[in-house]
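Recall from the previous chapter that SMILES is a line notation for molecules. Here it describes nicotinamide-adenine-dinucleotide.
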Amino acid sequence: MESQSQVREYDVVVIGGGPAGENAAQYAVEGTDMTAAIVERELLGGECSYWACMPSKALLRPVAVADLTADLPGVSTAHVAPKALLERRDTWVSHYDDAGQVTWAEGAEIAVLRGDGRLAGERTVRVASSSGDLTVTARRAVVIATGSAAHVPAMYADALPWDSHDATGVVEVPDRLVIVGGGVVACEAAIWMHALGSSVTLVVRDSRLLGRTEPFAGEAVLTGLRGRGIDVRLGAEVTDVRREDAAATGIGKVHGGTLTLTTSDGEIVADELLLSIGRAPRLDDIGLSSVGLTADDVKSGRLPEWLHAVGDASGGPPLTHWGKHQARVVGARIAAAAAGEVAWEPDREAPVPQVVFSDPEVASVGMTEAEAREAGHDVVTSRVPTSSAAGTALLRDHVAGESQLVVDAASHLLLGATFVGPEAGELVHAATVAITGDVPVHVLRHAVASYPTAAELWLRLLEELPRELRIPPASPAG
Ligand SMILES: Cc1cc2nc3c(=O)[nH]c(=O)nc-3n(C[C@H](O)[C@H](O)[C@H](O)COP(=O)(O)OP(=O)(O)OC[C@H]3O[C@@H](n4cnc5c(N)ncnc54)[C@H](O)[C@@H]3O)c2cc1C
Ligand SMILES: NC(=O)c1ccc[n+]([C@@H]2O[C@H](COP(=O)([O-])OP(=O)(O)OC[C@H]3O[C@@H](n4cnc5c(N)ncnc54)[C@H](O)[C@@H]3O)[C@@H](O)[C@H]2O)c1
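With both inputs in hand, we obtain:
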């Protein structure tokens, strides 16, 4: 039990024990004699382990496999068993018990301090818990890794809508579920909730799904969702929400009586509403003003040398792998500085890949065609049906989607890539490597993929590029 006045000192103190915070602590002290502590107020492992990536993918994978068997002659068609599907989810979230992660932290010699962490001055963090306050000072660095929180506009608040915790932690499957939003959470949750038995309506304010990806990817997902019986209303604005007897019944349970949504596309009556309209860094109430900083300072990286921000809290792309990458970079910087060295880093930021585990799967990295043009590149693209390689066509009977490369005509360098269809998430990594390593497309043509693997789609994409991109660009005159 901590006493009111207890003070402890570590080399590195991390506020927030999600994947980004855990990696920052680990990479800062690993192989050194420095000490680290992670302050966590809920479960060590964060959103990703219990309420986001892990449960959502545990729910989606069996659905994808069942879909595949329905499109693959030679095997019997499998069906989703809702109770077993939820049990699989429970296993993957360790029944909401973080003992395994605590064992990992102890093994890495990282202390876990339970409670609410707030900055309380330079290199100082106050940890408040039911067992009293603890003051922790950091000899070297403090890392903010507090994650992000879902947007809930005032219009929705009284209806107590579901957020992603409820959707990934679903216990009671509502008969009629309306999902507001057309982004990643909406496109993934629609699939597992439909598979569990909900009749799903997606209300999308924009004219397309997955607005930050190539338009052809959003169109393929729209066709996929509608094809499985999900009602997708594009360009529909919600103007009013009413609910009878809203009640805080608990995570994943239906939060009260019937809901009525008034939208520009008519009235929708449902048993539950999942709000998935984006997230924002969780930077309120972490004591930034005690060191003269604001949330904007954190998001724009204007921080004193002892303070760092990683993961969703940094305002960067809210993705686990990106947060973990930032954390490895920051951890290495802290370790190097403590040794009087400077950590090696590439001279530009790595490209950010993302996989949307929708139907069909969408994977992208780097710039879209529109982004590349906007950035002033002379752009060449090549787009082919994802079924157009023997290896992709063999994966199932009907391979939906197209895939595309975006290339800079002057340098022959890959600027971006999007894959839609089976194995998209695996196909995109070669693009990430090519962009990170500045491999021009005339060289990539000589990276031979095995026949007949899905990776041979790369050959199809590269062959579709103009012939002049098959040899090195002419050197600039002079
Ligand atoms: C439904 C869903 C599915 C997703 N699927 C994927 C996916 O497949 N792939 C992917 O890359 N990304 C996915 N994401 C995004 C991913 O979950 C986040 O990018 C990732 O969890 C961010 O990690 P983090 O460590 O920055 O923050 P978090 O995982 O949010 O962890 C932050 C931790 O800090 C703690 N904390 C916050 N404030 C304090 C405080 N003041 N004191 C003490 N502790 C505090 C919180 O309790 C939490 O444990 C998904 C997100 C959602 C919502
Ligand atoms: N597979 C993955 O990698 C994965 C899965 C789930 C979530 N995530 C991460 O979580 C983040 C949050 O996901 P998300 O789906 O909540 O956000 P998102 O940013 O992906 O999509 C938000 C959607 O809500 C719409 N919207 C915004 N404000 C609105 C409003 N007031 N009314 C109606 N619609 C509105 C947007 O137009 C968009 O369609 C994502 O940015 C993503 O990085 C990743």
